[in-house]
Specification:
The complex is a heterodimer of chains A (about 160) and B (about 90). Chain A is of the alpha+beta class. Chain A has four helices and six strands; from the N terminus they run ααββββββαα. The chains are: A alpha+beta (about 160), B alpha+beta (about 90). Chains A and B meet through helix 2, strand 5 and helix 4 of A and strand 1 and strand 6 of B.
């Protein structure tokens, strides 16, 4: 390995350590009072994965596996999960006006995706390439918790 | 129920922390909800709360109005955070 490659390798390790530290600090704020009050259930919170369900309020459960690898340089990637943790199928019909929870396939990933600023699949979608994550990164509404807040409100609004 | 007459026990719960950290704060029922939200933002060092939504259960609160006007009493945890800010095209 040459010096440049070694340096890039070191930078990758440092970035990963930073991402883990930030992830751990933000996830630590998701305490019992917040989780119980909102009907959020954390299935797993091991860097880089946050596996979380939104339950209650007369809605069907929405379980999401969020990957915060490269956080906060990249926003989290989201995968829909069934309540038991497997693949979500069939995909439930969403409420009128939904522009977030897509069962159509992402053009490059080939799977259903969440189309919302703060979610990686939005920023890598061909229709939103001009709406860069760098515009949002560091804003309170786009912290780990802020993104969860937004997903939760979208769930309350559009999920069956 | 708050021990003080015409008061309510309130906590503000956000993904950046809860104010107060433990228990509740006793505030006047006639006080606008936004007063306590502003205090929580200061204490939790949240720098921009523009457009944030406050909810109790399925009820979205009018934060410019009082607890009384929002029909709140007893002990309440106010869930507070940003709404869904945007999205893509309408999904099928």
């Amino acid at each position: 390995m040459g010096p440049a490659a070694a340096r890039r390798g070191c930078e990758g390790v440092v970035n990963s350590l930073g991402a883990k530290a930030l992830f751990d600090a933000e996830v630590k704020l998701l305490g019992d009072r917040l989780l119980e009050g909102r009907g959020w259930v954390v299935h797993r919170r091991d860097f880089p994965v946050l596996d979380i369900s939104f339950r209650g309020d007369g809605h069907q459960e929405l379980r999401l596996e969020l990957s915060f690898d490269d956080w906060p340089d990249s926003p989290p990637s989201a995968i829909y999960r069934a309540a038991g943790g497997g693949t979500l199928a069939p995909f439930p019909p969403r409420r009128d006006g939904n522009n977030i929870f897509h069962d159509s396939h992402h053009p490059t990933l080939g799977r259903p995706f969440i189309c919302m600023p703060g979610i990686r699949e939005y920023h890598t979608h061909q229709n939103h390439m001009n709406d860069a994550w760098s515009k949002y990164r560091g804003l309170p509404d786009y912290s780990l918790g802020g993104i969860l807040d937004q997903l939760w409100h979208a769930w309350r609004r559009f999920w069956p | 129920m708050s021990e003080k007459k015409n008061h309510i026990d309130v906590a503000v719960v956000t993904t950046a922390g809860t104010y107060p950290n433990d228990g509740f704060e006793s505030v006047a029922l006639e006080q606008p909800i936004k007063v306590e939200l502003d205090r929580a933002a200061r204490e939790l060092k949240i720098t921009n709360t523009s457009g944030w939504i406050a909810t109790v259960g399925t009820q979205t609160l009018n934060v410019d109005a009082s607890y009384l006007a929002n029909n709140l009493s007893g002990k309440v945890d106010i869930q507070w955070g940003p709404p869904q800010r945007g999205g893509g095209a309408k999904a099928s």
